[in-house]
Fold this sequence. Notes:
By secondary structure, the chain is an alpha/beta fold. It has a single domain (7-220), classed as Rossmann fold (3-Layer(aba) Sandwich). The chain contains ten helices and seven strands. The strands form two sheets. The protein has a five-stranded parallel β-sheet, with helices on both faces. Strands 3-4 form a two-stranded antiparallel ribbon. It binds cytidine-5'-monophosphate. Cytidine-5'-monophosphate binds at residues 14, 36-37, 40-41, 101-102, 105, 137-140, 177, 181.
Amino acid sequence: MNTIFPVIAVDGGAASGKSSTSRALAARFNLMHVDTGSHYRAVTFALVQAGVSPEDTAAIETQLAKLQLGEEIDGQSARISIGGKVPREEDIRSDAVNASVSPFAAVPDVRKFLFEYQRSQATVAERSGFNGLIMEGRDIGSVIFPDAVLRFFLEADEATRAARRAKEGQTDSIAERDRIDSSRKTAPLLCPVGAERIDTSHLTLEQVVDLLAGHIEDATGLAPVQA
Ligand code: C5P
């Protein structure tokens, strides 16, 4: 029996299947789901609205100091709020944010700003009565929760990822974002040593979810609350 509050890290590139998989696992085991990509998107939206560019580190620091972060629990998910408001999905997933989120996410001050907030989500999950936390992103298993009980790294070939985004009706510069995310100095996108690396290209969502669910049951002793 695991007495430590379980944290599960799910990392991977754009459209690797992280979100759908994490949401399904959250429902299956009553975990709180946190999408850290939406944190970077929300902060990017706020900075873009303030007229700041990713190169202007002094202005970024000034603007970040004005942002009050919180969260709202919406079903299984905790959504970031800024100044008491949850940003709208259409704003944080706009073409403008798709194009500028990776340059902002490469700025060390932006990452530092989100670090404690993201770590604090384990306490939020526990306090809110969930069985654990499942957090998805690019550096969860390497930087935010290197101590997570399970760390997954999802991959898919580029054609599969482009097809997934097209199906969602989104124009997204997947390859360009992955290039910036993998090559940045601070917390680059990588498969952490010891993480479970899973190629989802030729698997259905259900197969991926079942595969990860097996690992979760073995590592945490949690039982599904829903098939
Ligand atoms: O997950 P999503 O594709 O929405 O993430 C948007 C962007 O946020 C990524 O391309 C990356 O630049 C940044 N990100 C990050 N670290 C995370 C999550 C997202 O740098 N943990």
